[in-house]
Design brief:
It contains 17 helices and no strands.
Length: about 425
């Protein structure tokens, strides 16, 4: 089982890193796309916004399907759909075709909730944050891969279409690989109380179960911090490169080096957070939430120090430390779904979390752009990040106090199910 689940984790890692790369490629090749189709920033921006909106709307739909049907089959399907829609997008010969096919790529964006749910059933509660932390490294590593791939092709004078031929082909291949090697395990099979009792699927979601998610107080606070917590990420992702070039006067070639260093630091932060979260979980049922509160508090302080640094050297050093710290709440959030949500509803919980995060990340860039005209880009990034992370600090602190009750509710339910499955009364 150990070899199987580690291999599954590696397959998911490959899928997610290329999927993240695919998402970053489009921003890197945007100038080529605009030149090919003779369109403006506004035209392409509309494509980006509508694609994100469609993905957000479909997240709850995919989440329910994952909780109801075969996660292995659905994740495989999502990967193949991603591959084919990327390939079709690369074949566009007019902007209307590009527009339509780019929107179709949003259909597959909901693979992560199904993967997260499977990982929670492959790994015991005390090992989940490590597994999630490893998968979360695909975000920054995928950004590096996508940027390098796209910029290398652009520098060599190769069409932007080739980058999508590459990622699209990887999508189809990984989809087939997931179907072949990933094994559907019964929902809840890694729960301590149910270990060895689930020989087949015993629990599936019903539509009438979904309102339970909004009655789970801990989950509501995770949704709240998810909505506000992405504001800094969106501000940084969309605007930090422009800020470095325009307000700090850093040469584009040096900006790329700084971004790679920061992204590597983020990857290391995700891995560290996984180990730290699992250690704290074993010591206290409040451990992951308390660690999340500490992380977002430190993130607020560090972004302030980074953005107000006077020298180029201070900016780089504080930026590296900030990049290491800010992703560390993510693995705790994903692991906490497994601590407070029934196994058959975890994909839906993850999907609703992604829905709120997508709404937040779609709102943030426009807010930053409007405020930047009055306050300057650097000040806007700093204050939006500082205050929204401080707000998340409050959410995580409250969560640390209330989560033991929801954890106890889940453990009591698992013990009750164990009695029923073993034929007891």
């Amino acid at each position: 089982m150990d070899r199987l689940r580690l291999f599954v984790l590696l397959v998911f890692f490959v899928f997610l890193i290329f999927h993240q790369a695919d998402r970053f490629i489009i921003s890197a090749v945007a100038p080529q796309v605009m030149e090919d189709f003779k369109v403006s920033y506004g035209d392409l921006g509309l494509v980006f916004s509508l694609t994100g909106f469609i993905a957000a709307v479909l997240y709850p739909v995919w989440g329910y399907l994952y909780d109801r049907y075969s996660r292995r089959l659905l994740v495989s399907l999502a990967a193949v759909v991603w591959g084919f829609t990327s390939l079709i997008n690369a074949l566009s010969r007019s902007f209307s075709e590009f527009f339509a096919t780019r929107l179709s790529t949003a259909v597959d964006d909901a693979a992560p909730p199904g993967m997260s749910s499977l990982v929670l059933d492959y790994f015991e509660p005390e090992k989940r944050a490590r597994a999630i932390g490893f998968l979360n490294t695909t975000g920054p590593l995928g950004a590096i891969l996508g940027s390098i791939l796209a910029l290398s092709l652009v520098s060599a004078g190769i069409s932007w279409r080739v980058s999508f031929y590459i990622t699209g082909s990887v999508g189809v291949i990984t989809g087939l690989l997931i179907y072949k090697v990933v094994r559907d395990v019964p929902r809840g099979s890694s729960e301590p109380e149910l270990r060895g009792l689930l020989m087949r699927e015993a629990f599936r979601a019903k539509l009438s179960d979904l309102p339970k998610l909004l009655k789970n107080r801990s989950l509501v606070f995770l949704f709240l911090q998810g909505f506000w917590g992405v504001f800094p990420w969106a501000a940084i992702n969309y605007w930090i490169i422009t800020y470095m070039q325009v307000e700090r006067g850093i040469h584009p070639s040096e900006v790329m080096v700084i971004m790679v260093i920061w992204l590597v630091s983020m990857s290391l932060g995700n891995v560290f957070a996984g180990y730290a979260g699992d250690i704290l979980y074993r010591r206290s049922n409040r451990g992951r939430a308390a660690y999340g509160a500490l992380i977002v508090f430190l993130s607020a302080v560090l972004i302030y120090l980074t953005m107000t640094s006077k020298t180029h050297e201070e900016f780089l050093i504080y930026g590296v430390i900030t990049a290491f710290i800010i992703p560390q709440a993510g693995p705790q959030v994903s692991a906490m779904w497994g601590d407070i949500v029934e196994p058959e509803l975890r994909s839906s919980a993850a999907a609703f979390q992604a829905f709120f995060e997508n709404v937040g990340s779609s709102t943030a860039p426009a807010v930053v752009g409007l405020l930047a005209e009055r306050m300057g880009l650097g000040n806007t990034i700093m204050w939006i990040s500082f205050w929204t992370w401080m707000l998340c600090f409050i959410f995580f602190t409250v969560l640390a106090f209330i989560i033991p009750m929801d954890m106890k509710r889940l453990r009591d339910l698992m013990r009750q199910r164990a009695v029923e499955l073993s034929g007891g009364v």
